[in-house]
């Protein structure tokens, strides 16, 4: 089906000219130049569609596939014509790399988009694998672009690939691709390709979150895990429990209203990014103490390390009817608002410290024998509520590995502790998300965020490295295969992975440059696979120039991604800045 | 002279309310609120001066002290009234921390600035210690501000301290300080407080450089070391050697014209920041090969590690009359343009690899016995030209430590290799700048920038840590005393220090968040001293809340500094996120 052209491309892919990110499963490109302007015809299932910068599909859970694709076309045009860049950093210094605009030009004439199957309701809130994200894209030498996909999200992915073919000409009034003809056949390796954003430890505006969704969609990432509350703050407005955000937000008004939440979820759906909200429990929830008393133990107990991993501690009382009542109210308020837009809800479950329950007047014990049945009941109850709302529960791995809690077969388990955890979980039959902190925790390696007073604390912790250093360079991120070492059968249970952005020292100001393009590196592993079609690990020599190009494109589109290499490297062959022993 | 009020303040300084950065040598503050508006009177040596946002002193080397101070006042007003912030992150959650704007308000009525001595020419291009940067600032309860300084730069420092007293009120139309009365007596510990910015490996616009000068001035840092060329690119236009930038810049037009350079130097002088340009030689200059042949050996030789520390290598031929002719032309073009604005020129000298001269047809040797006399002659010649232009030479330490070159007593030696180097150099009588990479290299710890092909290179270098990790957190930066372990007499030879921003993976996009506020931490060590007036190392408990406040102020003023701690920490006492064993 896909034979000779592909082989010819394998060599080309080593050069700087063939620069899609993430790399498609199959791609062939040529060397003919096609210009593009805004007069070309775009059709969707035969209907002509218009494109307007900033066009958004209508709001509401009655999604229109056509509107979603139309918005994708508008974004592609925005990226090609408004937010594009001249690729001087990616071409030989002082070389004449641009096409001559005074010669006869061939233009892209049309983009014919065909969605071959109807989106059903699950297409907009899929379980992992439930929506077919594959697409094909061809661009002929005479300027006919053809996109085919089974779903609207497949069409969106095709459009993101299409726009990555084009550059701005330094004249400022022309845009072109040097890569025609193009033929792409593409689909994701893993169905769950996520970013975890902790919006509880630091405050992020709704626009910061949407901005992150944008960048994810450009990288064909499709799950935004919103860690929305933690012991430090509760920025989530729950109208039935108004004091939560009033007292628990870092500042009155710095909280997400129901409209905000709806807006974030919709924004994601329109871009193929499903939002998965986490309200971490029964630990990591001390902040509730500020609003509703008698639900929490160990809030801000010191020294914190006896009670939790970081201040201010605090966990639910696990044998309290008041806590169950609270959960009822919380979930009954929240779930109906998010269920139209997502298949999942994450109940957390990491780092629960047994000691906390010693302070619980109903328990007064840190004995696993005492606590485990209480926790089992708690989780069963919470997950029952999740399922009642039509959602599927997510948990952190400690629920199994530390507590041996029995979970439903539907539950997705997120692993962060590395080692053999993912393998063990998959072999035990669990669906697993790989967030191994050794590779995919993007906040790590920049040093401690705690204060150390002169004297013993200073001496002990000098030079103040954090627990999870060194920082995860894109090369390290890229080296991580989420299903490494698993049998083919067990590997199927690894739904994908998430890079994590814990926000002890990250806010909107440094978010972009810490997340991107390192999350892109994970994005390619998750979409394209750590191995190429020949089963070889993808090489930095292949990835570096493409990632450098993707970075320039992201910057041009408004995301402050960090540079991959200095221009001296990106202007040359990848071996120019390659190490040869 | 300065007794009781000071002691009273020592306690206060532990709280979050007293937040100047860098901390003045002596400060007392109160708890009375003063409002401020734009109608107050400002005088300079008795003359009323006006303030206009964006006001700049006239261009040219005939500096007007009054214009410089007037521009400083305008910037202070810009910072207070335009680019200010509501300090919610620095105050207890949901607390009523703002003054009541409906009550009777006392306003700041006047700022009386007195410069007690005239600036002489050296004030605008001082050798280390040549200009007196001290100042006093008082702000009385009834709103009279008095600034006294011997130099215009002292006045600028006072104005930066003054503006840091003020916050925006959330009403949006009021501005206030909660700290009156204020009394400050201040002067720097070290005369050389620098940032090294590598504008050769990555390209930075003139505005990026000026932006960095702004942030330096806010932190009372006063030396911008501009590493303007390296083997990767030559962005410096030399009209007498036009091909240098034409061929050596990363892209035609991405180079600094004589006007640009004049503008950068002037911009610095107007803000008390002296620019020190480095043209690194005789190594780190391979790029000249692209423009002028026969001056360079080992350009882009591979494997690079035989010839230099990183690609593309390249060093001057050290026994070549053509190289001496080139230096004559280069220096005679450049020096007259910069000498009006600076006391210094840096001739580099780091990482010269002996092997390079094996490829030099005139030398064909890597024997130190052969090379050292050639290098001595080269340095003598170059430094002679520097002195002829009225400038003082700077070098990297290897000229002494690796090569045992004899240098003039005037030469300042920059040490980066850590260990006992600074001590050894000072004990040998050299003036030293401390840039110990273990503490003050801000680019470190984010991983390798080289590509490693699958196989041996990948295996050897996995997990791709860079040579100088881990990354230098602000706590580590802050722990570094540039004159640690030196006798009082030797310590006088340590003129100060520089944090370094090497740009293999830094460009304008991530510059701010990598440099700030970590450079601020070094800035305080260099201005205030690692030890307080009682001789105790300054504590993270004292520094963290002040640095967090400075960070917010920098962000408000347009510099994308990274967060110091999450709001949970900054809203509380410093011990809230402090480690207690």
Automatic annotation (TrEMBL), chains A, B:
The keyword Signal applies. Residues 20-165 form the Beta-hexosaminidase eukaryotic type N-terminal domain. Keywords: Glycoprotein, Glycosidase, Hydrolase, Signal. The keyword Hydrolase applies. It is an enzyme of class 3 (hydrolase). It holds the Pfam family Glyco_hydro_20. GO terms for biological process: carbohydrate metabolic process; glycosaminoglycan metabolic process. The active site is at residue 351. Residues 190-529 form the Glycoside hydrolase family 20 catalytic domain. GO terms for cellular component: membrane. It catalyses: Hydrolysis of terminal non-reducing N-acetyl-D-hexosamine residues in N-acetyl-beta-D-hexosaminides. GO terms for molecular function: beta-N-acetylglucosaminidase activity. Residues 1-19 form the signal peptide. Belongs to the glycosyl hydrolase 20 family. This is Beta-hexosaminidase. It comes from Cylindrodendrum hubeiense. The lineage of its organism: Eukaryota, Fungi, Dikarya, Ascomycota, Pezizomycotina.
């Amino acid at each position: 089906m896909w034979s000779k052209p592909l082989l010819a491309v394998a060599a080309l892919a080593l050069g700087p000219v063939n620069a899609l990110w993430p790399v498609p499963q199959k791609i062939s490109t040529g060397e003919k130049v096609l210009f593009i302007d805004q007069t070309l015809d775009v059709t969707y299932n035969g209907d002509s569609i218009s494109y307007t910068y900033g066009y958004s599909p209508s709001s509401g859970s009655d999604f229109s596939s056509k509107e979603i694709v139309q918005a994708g076309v508008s974004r592609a045009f925005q990226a090609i014509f408004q937010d594009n860049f001249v690729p001087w950093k990616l071409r030989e210094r002082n070389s004449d790399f641009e096409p001559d605009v005074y010669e006869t030009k061939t233009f892209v004439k049309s983009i014919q988009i065909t969605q071959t199957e109807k989106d059903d309701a699950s297409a907009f809130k899929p379980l992992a694998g439930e929506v077919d994200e594959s697409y094909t894209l061809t661009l002929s030498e005479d300027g006919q672009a053809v996109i085919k996909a089974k779903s609207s999200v497949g069409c969106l992915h095709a459009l993101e690939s299409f726009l990555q073919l084009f550059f701005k000409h330094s004249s400022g009034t022309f845009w072109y691709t040097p890569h025609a003809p193009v033929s792409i056949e593409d689909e994701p390796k893993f169905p769950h390709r996520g970013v975890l954003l902790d919006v509880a430890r630091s405050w992020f505006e709704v626009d910061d979150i949407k901005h992150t969704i944008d960048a994810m969609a450009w990288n064909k990432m499709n799950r935004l895990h919103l860690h929305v509350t933690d012991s430090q703050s509760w920025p989530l407005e729950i109208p039935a429990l108004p004091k939560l955000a009033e007292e628990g937000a870092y500042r009155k008004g710095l909280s997400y209203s129901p409209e905000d939440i709806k807006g974030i979820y919709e924004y994601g759906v329109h871009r193929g990014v499903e939002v998965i909200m986490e309200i971490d429990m029964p630990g990591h929830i001390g902040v509730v103490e500020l609003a509703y008393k008698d639900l929490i133990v160990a809030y801000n107990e010191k020294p914190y390390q006896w009670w939790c991993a970081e201040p201010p501690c605090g966990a639910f009382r696990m044998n309290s009817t008041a806590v169950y009542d609270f959960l009822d109210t919380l979930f009954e308020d929240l779930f109906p608002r998010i269920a139209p837009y997502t298949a999942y809800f994450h109940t957390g479950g990491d780092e629960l410290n047994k000691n906390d329950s010693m302070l619980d007047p109903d328990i007064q014990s840190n004995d696993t024998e005492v606590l485990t049945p209480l926790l089992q009941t708690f989780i069963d109850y919470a997950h029952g509520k999740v399922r009642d709302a039509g959602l599927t529960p997510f948990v952190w791995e400690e629920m199994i590995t530390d507590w041996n809690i029995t979970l439903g077969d539907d539950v997705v388990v997120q692993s962060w502790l590395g080692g053999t955890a993912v393998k063990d979980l998959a072999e035990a039959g669990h669906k697993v998300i790989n967030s191994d902190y050794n590779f995919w925790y993007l906040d790590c390696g920049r040093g401690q965020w705690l204060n150390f007073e002169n004297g013993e604390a200073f001496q002990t912790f000098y030079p103040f490295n954090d627990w999870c250093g060194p920082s995860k360079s894109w090369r390290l991120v890229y080296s991580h295969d989420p299903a490494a070492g698993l049998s083919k059968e067990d590997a199927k249970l690894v739904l994908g992975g998430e890079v994590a952005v814990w926000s002890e020292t990250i806010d909107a100001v440094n978010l972009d440059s810490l997340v991107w393009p390192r999350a892109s590196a994970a994005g390619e592993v998750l979409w394209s696979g750590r191995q190429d079609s020949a089963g070889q690990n993808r090489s930095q020599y292949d990835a570096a120039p493409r990632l450098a190009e993707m970075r320039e494109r992201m910057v041009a589109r408004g995301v402050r991604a960090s540079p991959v290499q200095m221009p001296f490297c990106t202007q040359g062959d990848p071996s120019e800045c390659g190490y040869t022993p």
